[in-house]
Amino acid sequence: MTDRKNHIPFDEDNYTHNIERNNERMLDRRGFMKTLVGAAGLFAISSLPWGTIAAKELMGLSKKEYSHKKIASLKAVAVGDSVDFSFPGEHDSALLIRLSETRFVAYQNACTHLRCPVFWKKEEDKMICPCHHGEFSAKTGKPVAGPPRRPLPQIQLKVENGFIYATGVKRYEA
Amino acid sequence: MKRSFLGVFLLALILAINIVTTQFMVHQFFYEHYTNTLACVALNLFLFPVALLIYKKEIHKGGKKYEQ
């Protein structure tokens, strides 16, 4: 048995029959256990980045700070009316809607389909994208009809001293 | 001497727990349940020294390295 394994078929440069020890290629119990420990180590290391990002999120380091922006005065916006503004940048157009005496909502109004500007249609109680007839619910910003599948990013608002301020953009939640 | 497969069994069990924990960790991360994610990370990190300990204890059990 041993002789047959170690037999070199012809007397030339030997590249194929160069395994000297018997059983060298065999994965024994210890080798297998070693592999399993290595796998455990790999799992431990690979979970580190997830932990780092999760800890970062929990400590609120990823929360963006926005400077507050005055949108309009309370008197200027009647119930059911909307106001165009831009937040946070000057090219991020947004839409403020007064749903009731006390309830305001605001969204960035680039349609989540192909970024056409969405407008507020009071009679239908919806936000409508004119390009492909996408429709969004004004209460939640979620798409209700047409091609868009993702909600409009909501803008956080604050009412103070008779003025409405934009204070931040809600993070996208799937 | 009969070889001991207890270590192999325990380490395979640890591997199974690792796989399940990692899957759970990734899913909880995307659901934004970060506390659960951190718990899974801690469990994964804890399992590695345990695996090492089992290996160290079990390596000399059983017979010679190559039984003829």
TrEMBL record, chain A:
Q: Which residues form a coiled coil?
A: none
Q: Does the keyword Membrane apply?
A: yes
Transmembrane regions listed in the UniProt entry: 31-50
Under the heading PANTHER family, the entry gives: CYTOCHROME B-C1 COMPLEX SUBUNIT RIESKE, MITOCHONDRIAL
Q: Which UniProt keywords apply?
A: 2Fe-2S, Disulfide bond, Iron, Iron-sulfur, Membrane, Metal-binding, Transmembrane, Transmembrane helix
Enumerate the InterPro entries for this protein. Answer: Rieske_2Fe-2S, Rieske_2Fe-2S_sf, Rieske_Fe-S_prot, TAT_signal
Recorded hits in SUPFAM superfamilies, A to Z, give:
ISP domain
Q: What is this protein called?
A: Rieske (2Fe-2S) protein
Q: Residues in domain Rieske?
A: 74-166
What CDD domains has UniProt attached to this entry? Answer: Rieske (cd03467)
Mind telling me which Pfam families this protein's record contains? Rieske (PF00355)
Automatic annotation (TrEMBL), chain B:
Answer whether the UniProt record assigns the keyword Membrane to this protein: yes
Q: What is the top-level taxon of the source organism?
A: Bacteria
Keywords associated with the record? Membrane, Transmembrane, Transmembrane helix
- Chain segments annotated as transmembrane: 34-55
Protein name per the record: Uncharacterized protein
